Amino acid sequence: MRLFLITYFIFILTNVGKAISDVLPNDIFSSVEVVELQMNSLQTNSKINNSGIYQCWLFAHPENKKYTGPYNNFKRMISDTSYKILLNSTKFKISLLNKNQEMAKYSVDVDAYDNRRYNLNWVLERAKLDKNCKNCWMTTSVTQPQFIGQLN
After folding, report:
1. What is the pLDDT of residue 82?
2. Predicted local distance difference test score (pLDDT) of residue 1
3. Dihedrals φ, ψ of 135, to 5°?
4. Contact 87, 78 (CB under 8 A)
């Protein structure tokens, strides 16, 4: 019985992470909602299965994926470079810089786990992937984090 409960608990934890990571790009999301979804996913990333990083990768534009490569490369890029400040941040603020029908650019201030504030620019463009994503917003680039101040 004890083995069954342990197995069941592990199964639930594993599948909860997958369920959270199954939000796919579609035409319903606005550009700012995509940035919010990606930032929330990275903010609540699980170190067990990296579900937040995976969720973020799902909204990477196909042109972006040409540079970041497959998911495992993207995961390394987020967790092992300056982008790691996006993981498990304490707070973020998104501000629109400019937007038209095909492109949107946002400034994102991030209060990171290291008690510092950083700024990044998030650029999104429209993409066509499938019947649910005929004109959906996806991230084409994110600038390197720029340190803008120490938090109290």
Report:
1. 97
2. 53
3. -160, 50
4. yes
Q: Which domains does the chain show, CATH number per domain?
A: 23-150 (3.10.450.630)
Q: What is the mean pLDDT of each run of 10 residues along the chain (152 residues)?
A: 42 44 89 98 95 96 94 96 97 98 98 97 96 96 97 89
Alpha carbon distance 128, 135 (integer Å): 5
Tokens of 24: 């796919």
In whole angstroms, give the CA distance from residue 26 to residue 138. 9
Cβ neighbours of residue 61 under 8 Å, at least 6 residues apart? 124, 125, 127, 138, 139, 140
- Residue 134: name the closest of 33, 23, 27 by CA: 27
Rounded to whole angstroms, the Cα distance separating 12 from 136 reads 31
Q: Which two tokens stand for residue 113?
A: 């786990």
Residue 69 three-state SS: coil
**E-state strands within 12-115:** 91-99, 103-111
Tell me what pLDDT residue 14 has. 43
Q: How many angstroms separate the Cα of 118 from the Cα of each of 83, 114, 122?
A: 10, 10, 13
Token output for 31: 């550009």
